[in-house]
């Protein structure tokens, strides 16, 4: 075994965060601002990915990349700020299939990704390249390089995720969810190692939709088992506050699936690997008996200060060895 | 043989025009405005077509489609008017390969074409669809549905057309040109029929670059022979006026290929099928002996009125049965 080169630094502890789109990306941004970003590793849902006009679209990966690099449009809640829409206008004028909005600048990412996938690069290679080009120092890992497709069953049959989420605005009543391809997918390179590494100081489940954003990740063989086996604390931030979701169809979906639409249901859902659950103070009493350690916290993130504060709360609550820094 | 249905109209005489990009499209527009556009059939160079960022780009087809539909940017000389460039800016920011400028609205055509090609549609099917969606009533035919690639040999070896034309701005000195794939390409559906039909009243070679825009068309097996065999008059408008090209590298290229950079060289180049050559009055004396009938005409097209006037001159000079109309 070769000796470590003299200028090679000892591995530092790292944080792993599992995240979906907008809600998760808020806390991801907070984390990236209060700790060394090179010690952050994001594992991102790709169950929402789809093909549109022959382009490979990865909504959650892009939301995270844009949020972390300061390119996201905060008020619209998706896509890039200072965006223009001339591609879509021209597409609509051609009578093209224009139900999913792609901004002109956003298209650069989709065209590059699609091109590189066709050239044989993997989704994780392309994601790493995009992160680097956008100036990010953290690791952004798709959950898998193989396709996994979240589908929801409504009264008229199975719906592709974007059909349900965008085209039908989450209106169909859902009675089942599946993650097509998850059973034969593999975790992307780095995913399992990041979770099981002895340098992993903390594993965070961001407040993303458990059924639509986190469960697709957990459905990839090996990831849930790695979470169970990890010696690092696993903490989740509740996506439900006082019986309501901050954004999106979480609570509506819970009702339709016959689940009590409360924070405790989420904690129970993660009970086999969860060490700590951060909930709104209003939800503490309702979690009885608690399926794991719970702590009240201000988990609603209205602005950047909220995101940084919650990120500090997460790190502090776990007593990790992660160095907290001042936002740059 | 079934009798013609009572409400089926008798075929009307039609005009076939071979064209490349900007120069040819000017006369194409003039024609489309002074005769019934449904009696116009364009056969368009696809030797400039290329793949860029995984998108199939057909510059001459798009120049013609945009020009005929009023979408082209006249002052820039290429692309669409009222165009924006946020895709390119974002692509450049990603460090992507941004040497060929694609406007945001223009992208809608490239994305649609690329998507449809991957779905198995042919270039001519897609072109017909685009023409229809853009409200055109004329026929726009690519010369072939198979790939043909114009390449030019400079001092450092063979160059792809767009590398020479756009990236290197026609600066390399060229000693040979080839049309890769032309030998095994087939004329697109409708190309040969349009030329050899007894209803073809006139075949026009637009004032496009003979070596870079018209010769690729003539290199597709069967097209040159069809021009020779056609009973309709074949007329060309000189792309060279008084020893200069209106636009582009025609004269530079002629010199480099060892050809006299005069209109007469173009007439001789087409001599095996050409019936009439329209030249600037200044060039008449130089064409001696003439390789075919020549007529002086105001062939420089500065504005729309020039384009319509030259189109009328072409039709009148051939004494065709085509009905000339007032521009709508």
Helix fraction of chain A, binned, reads 25-40%
Question: In percent terms, what proportion of residues of chain A is strand?
Answer: 15-25%
What value does the Rg of chain A take, in angstroms?
A: 19 Å
Give the integer mean of the pLDDT values of chain A: 93
Helix tally of chain A equals 12
DSSP strand tally of chain A: 14
Shape of chain A: globular
Low-confidence stretches of chain A: none
From the N-terminal CA to the C-terminal CA of chain A, the straight-line distance is: 39 Å
Order of strands, widest sheet of chain A: 5-2-1-9-10-13-14
Q: Could you describe the largest sheet of chain A, including whether it forms a barrel? A: 7 strands, parallel
Give the oligomer, counting copies of the same chain as homo and different chains as hetero.
Answer: homodimer
Strand-pairing-aware structural class of chain A = alpha/beta
What is the N-to-C succession of helices and strands of chain A?
EHEEEHHHHEEEHEHEHHEEEHHEEH
The most extensive contact between chains is:
A-B, 32 and 32 residues
Can you describe what's shown?
2 copies of one chain form a homodimer. In chain A, the strands form 4 sheets. In chain A, strands 5-2-1-9-10-13-14 form a 7-stranded parallel beta sheet, with helices on both faces. A 3-stranded antiparallel beta sheet of chain A has the order 7-6-8. In chain A, strands 3-4 form a two-stranded antiparallel sheet. The longest helix of chain A is centred in the last third of the chain and has 15 residues, at 304-318. Chain A is globular, with a radius of gyration of 19 Å. Chain A starts with 13 loop residues before the first strand and ends in a 10-residue tail after the last helix. Helices cover 34% and strands 18% of the residues of chain A. Chain A has 328 residues and is of the alpha/beta class. Chains A and B meet through helix 3 and helix 4 of A and helix 3 and helix 4 of B.
